[in-house]
Amino acid sequence: MALKSLLTAAVCASAAAVVLYLPSLHAQGRRPNPGIIPKSLVDLRAQDSRVDRMMRVGELRVRTAHADKLVPGRRIERTDQFVGGVRVFGADVARQLDRGQTVSVFGTLYDGLVVDTTPSVPELEARGRVEEAAGVRLGPSRAGELMVLPREDGTAVLTWRVRAATGDDLREYFVDAHTGAIIFEYSDLQTQSAVGAGTGVLGDPKKVSAMRTGGTFGLQDALRPPSIRTYDMKGDPFRTRDVVNGRVQLAPSDLGSDSDNRWEDGALSDAHVYSGFTYDYYFKRFNRRGINDANLRMESLVHPVRRSDFSRYSSTFSTFFANAVYYGGGLMAYGVGHPPGVTSGGRNWNYASGALDIVAHEITHGVTEYTSDLIYLNESGALNESFSDIMGTAVEFFFQPAGDGLLRADYLCAEDIARGVGNGIRSLANPIDRGHPDHYSIRYTGTADSGGVHINSGIPNHVFYLAIEGGTNRVSGLRVEGVGAANRAQIETVFYRAVTQLLPANATFSMARAATIQAARDLYGPGSAAERSMTEAWTAVGVN
Hints:
By secondary structure, the protein is an alpha+beta fold. Among the domains are: 176 residues, Elastase, domain 1, CATH 3.10.170; 163 residues, Neutral Protease, domain 2, CATH 1.10.390.10. Helix content is 29%, strand content 24%. The radius of gyration is 22 Å and the shape is globular. The N terminus is likely disordered.
């Protein structure tokens, strides 16, 4: 359900974990997080028994259960906590089993929640309150979900959870189901078979998979299992906003089209081709069938506004310019960049779809949505952003030659289209160079940027870099022996397994450390180079 944007709002042995309250409702770092990560087999068994007990009485319900594609014999089970038949926001458990024996448990659970689960305010009225607050109209597909919202003081509130996209944000609203008041909200803007010839944003030639209908070719990929479609919104921000809010359905006439199958619109070509590349990466590397592992549709909205309208719409539709957004359910939108002479953070933006790592970043938000569904706040949100950065980088190295310059794989994010003083907006190799922390001791602890989701992503990003390439952390002075570029796939798989299989929605950095070390041990064995490098890298960045 998450919506992620690429840019920051502030600057452009087995282990179990159970969190006893929801740190997402306040800034992490302002009070200690009581997350528990037992180190002993006895503690693991105790937590496992707790999960079994709650499942027997219906307080935990299985959301998904499937065989592990990466480790034979393993099974991954995700359960959600319920109170009186209503799901609890941010409360879930991910459990790994080996032939019925629990190997790891990571989760967030609440004890003693008491709440009246019969709403006094109907869903339609709650949706109206959100429409009034957001200044938009919502379609039937944006119906609210009844949820129990835990609070810091140990109480809980029955709410309607409603999502609304404005011109420059995507917000999750929680409406008190008894009073009708909006009591909590946060930004969920997760941002960062005819084959024709196309030209990309950077002038590079491409093969474009399109479908012929009569005398016209449309950007519908008929060569891959899911429906991959790329739409031309023709510079209409209001129609684009109505599409993402479910007020308007995309029509065949919205599909990117060309008369001779020679695609000269680089923004359309790149969004379409790079979506296919990202699907191929996930399938070839992890045997994953797209965003939800069941070939969910992948739809890209291109040209949501015109560059020439920058002075007119840049304040109300900012995400449609220098940004890219994942709107949930396999729907992405790519900004048009800046007109000449306009910069942000000393950089001019080209069409966002012109960077392979941006497209892979947004699609990876979808993978997260259908697996751990990391809540887009504080440390769980930073892990969400980091995983998209990591997989965007991984896709680059899978398809592009390593090196500096355009269309080369490196450890920068968006460097192909965000050019100027320091190309790219984030660096995994040297996060501080783009204004992001590279050590937990200097993490951002304020409330801006949804608690630093883009800012603090630099910490796990640096873990990924160190675990592969090795090096010394600038702050701690600790050296990491990486697995080496030749073994890059090991660390990619470790992070993929940890985020998609082992982590809960409300994960912390400490949980991510435990889960990635567990994943390395599961995949490559105790004492392996992958396990050693992950342990050293997390220690070097100050996460224990």
